[in-house]
Protein backbone atom coordinates (compact mmCIF):
# COMPACT_ATOMS: atom_id res chain seq x y z
CA UNK A 1 0.00 0.00 0.00
CA UNK A 2 1.12 3.57 -0.72
CA UNK A 3 0.14 6.78 1.06
CA UNK A 4 -0.11 10.42 -0.02
CA UNK A 5 0.65 13.53 2.00
CA UNK A 6 -3.07 14.32 1.66
CA UNK A 7 -3.81 11.19 3.78
CA UNK A 8 -5.08 8.95 1.01
CA UNK A 9 -4.15 5.29 0.75
CA UNK A 10 -3.59 3.52 -2.56
CA UNK A 11 -3.80 -0.25 -2.92
CA UNK A 12 -2.76 -1.91 -6.19
CA UNK A 13 -4.98 -4.82 -7.20
CA UNK A 14 -4.00 -6.29 -10.58
CA UNK A 15 -4.21 -3.36 -13.06
CA UNK A 16 -6.39 -1.17 -10.80
CA UNK A 17 -5.66 1.10 -7.86
CA UNK A 18 -8.20 1.33 -5.03
CA UNK A 19 -8.22 4.69 -3.20
CA UNK A 20 -9.49 5.65 0.25
CA UNK A 21 -8.51 7.85 3.17
CA UNK A 22 -6.42 6.87 6.15
CA UNK A 23 -7.57 6.40 9.73
CA UNK A 24 -5.73 9.62 10.58
CA UNK A 25 -7.77 11.55 7.99
CA UNK A 26 -11.04 9.99 9.17
CA UNK A 27 -10.24 10.94 12.77
CA UNK A 28 -9.36 14.51 11.77
CA UNK A 29 -12.61 14.89 9.81
CA UNK A 30 -14.85 13.66 12.61
CA UNK A 31 -18.23 12.12 11.80
CA UNK A 32 -18.64 11.96 8.01
CA UNK A 33 -22.17 12.93 6.95
CA UNK A 34 -21.91 13.20 3.14
CA UNK A 35 -19.78 11.75 0.34
CA UNK A 36 -19.99 12.75 -3.33
CA UNK A 37 -18.25 10.28 -5.63
CA UNK A 38 -17.06 10.70 -9.23
CA UNK A 39 -18.89 9.14 -12.17
CA UNK A 40 -17.66 5.79 -13.46
CA UNK A 41 -15.92 6.35 -16.79
CA UNK A 42 -14.54 9.75 -15.78
CA UNK A 43 -10.97 10.38 -16.94
CA UNK A 44 -8.99 12.18 -14.24
CA UNK A 45 -5.64 13.89 -14.06
CA UNK A 46 -3.46 13.78 -10.98
CA UNK A 47 -4.53 16.44 -8.44
CA UNK A 48 -8.05 16.86 -9.90
CA UNK A 49 -10.63 17.26 -7.13
CA UNK A 50 -12.82 14.21 -7.59
CA UNK A 51 -14.50 13.34 -4.27
CA UNK A 52 -16.22 15.67 -1.82
CA UNK A 53 -16.45 14.63 1.83
CA UNK A 54 -18.42 16.57 4.41
CA UNK A 55 -18.24 15.95 8.12
CA UNK A 56 -19.61 17.64 11.19
CA UNK A 57 -16.29 19.54 11.39
CA UNK A 58 -15.33 20.33 7.79
CA UNK A 59 -15.68 19.78 4.08
CA UNK A 60 -12.77 18.25 2.24
CA UNK A 61 -11.84 17.13 -1.25
CA UNK A 62 -10.04 14.01 -2.32
CA UNK A 63 -7.62 14.58 -5.17
CA UNK A 64 -6.89 12.10 -7.92
CA UNK A 65 -3.54 10.57 -6.92
CA UNK A 66 -2.74 9.47 -10.47
CA UNK A 67 -3.91 9.93 -14.06
CA UNK A 68 -6.46 7.39 -15.21
CA UNK A 69 -10.08 6.34 -15.57
CA UNK A 70 -12.52 5.81 -12.71
CA UNK A 71 -13.79 2.25 -13.21
CA UNK A 72 -15.76 1.69 -9.99
CA UNK A 73 -17.09 3.74 -7.08
CA UNK A 74 -18.20 2.60 -3.63
CA UNK A 75 -21.92 3.43 -3.78
CA UNK A 76 -22.34 2.23 -0.17
CA UNK A 77 -20.74 5.49 0.99
CA UNK A 78 -23.45 7.56 -0.69
CA UNK A 79 -26.11 5.90 1.48
CA UNK A 80 -23.94 5.34 4.56
CA UNK A 81 -21.13 7.96 4.70
CA UNK A 82 -20.42 7.01 8.33
CA UNK A 83 -18.65 3.89 7.03
CA UNK A 84 -15.68 6.19 6.38
CA UNK A 85 -15.27 6.52 10.15
CA UNK A 86 -15.95 2.84 10.86
CA UNK A 87 -13.56 1.20 8.38
CA UNK A 88 -11.45 3.75 6.47
CA UNK A 89 -8.80 1.22 5.39
CA UNK A 90 -11.27 -1.47 4.36
CA UNK A 91 -14.91 -1.29 3.29
CA UNK A 92 -14.88 2.52 3.04
CA UNK A 93 -12.75 2.80 -0.11
CA UNK A 94 -13.91 5.59 -2.44
CA UNK A 95 -13.06 4.57 -5.99
CA UNK A 96 -11.01 2.31 -8.21
CA UNK A 97 -8.95 3.81 -10.98
CA UNK A 98 -7.25 2.24 -14.01
CA UNK A 99 -3.93 4.12 -14.12
CA UNK A 100 -2.47 5.46 -17.32
CA UNK A 101 1.02 5.16 -15.82
CA UNK A 102 1.54 2.86 -12.82
CA UNK A 103 4.96 4.45 -12.20
CA UNK A 104 3.18 7.54 -10.79
CA UNK A 105 2.73 5.46 -7.63
CA UNK A 106 6.50 5.60 -7.10
CA UNK A 107 6.06 9.21 -5.88
CA UNK A 108 4.17 8.11 -2.76
CA UNK A 109 5.16 6.92 0.70
CA UNK A 110 5.21 3.42 2.09
CA UNK A 111 3.52 2.72 5.42
CA UNK A 112 6.61 3.44 7.53
CA UNK A 113 7.13 6.85 5.90
CA UNK A 114 3.45 7.72 6.32
CA UNK A 115 3.51 6.77 10.00
CA UNK A 116 6.54 9.02 10.43
CA UNK A 117 4.64 11.85 8.71
CA UNK A 118 1.62 11.67 11.03
CA UNK A 119 3.79 10.96 14.08
Could you walk me through the main structural features you see in this protein, from its secondary elements to its overall organization?
With 119 residues, the chain is of the alpha+beta class. It has a single domain (2-118), classed as RNA polymerase II/Efflux pump adaptor protein, barrel-sandwich hybrid domain (OB fold (Dihydrolipoamide Acetyltransferase, E2P), Beta Barrel), CATH 2.40.50. The protein has helices spanning 23-29, 76-79, 83-86, 111-118, and strands at residues 2-3, 8-13, 16-21, 32-36, 43-44, 49-55, 59-63, 68-73, 95-99. β2 and β3 form a beta hairpin. The longest helix is centred in the C-terminal third of the chain and has 8 residues, at 111-118. The two termini are 18 Å apart.
Notable characteristics:
single chain; 119 residues; alpha+beta; OB fold (Dihydrolipoamide Acetyltransferase, E2P); 6-stranded antiparallel sheet; 3-stranded antiparallel sheet; 37% strand
Low-confidence stretches: none
Fourth-tier CATH superfamily name: RNA polymerase II/Efflux pump adaptor protein, barrel-sandwich hybrid domain
How many structurally independent domains?
1
The CATH architecture is Beta Barrel
Shape call: globular
Query: What does the average pLDDT come to?
Result: 96
CATH level-3 fold name: OB fold (Dihydrolipoamide Acetyltransferase, E2P)
Helix/strand order, N-terminal first: EEEHEEEEEHHEH
- Number of helical stretches of at least 4 residues: 4
What would CATH call the class?
Mainly Beta
Percent of residues in helices: 10-25%
Beta strand count: 9
Q: What composes the largest sheet?
A: 6 strands, antiparallel
What value does the Rg take, in angstroms? 13 Å
Strand residue percentage: 35-45%
* Coarse structural class: alpha+beta
State the end-to-end CA separation. 18 Å
Strand order of the largest sheet: 1-2-3-9-8-5
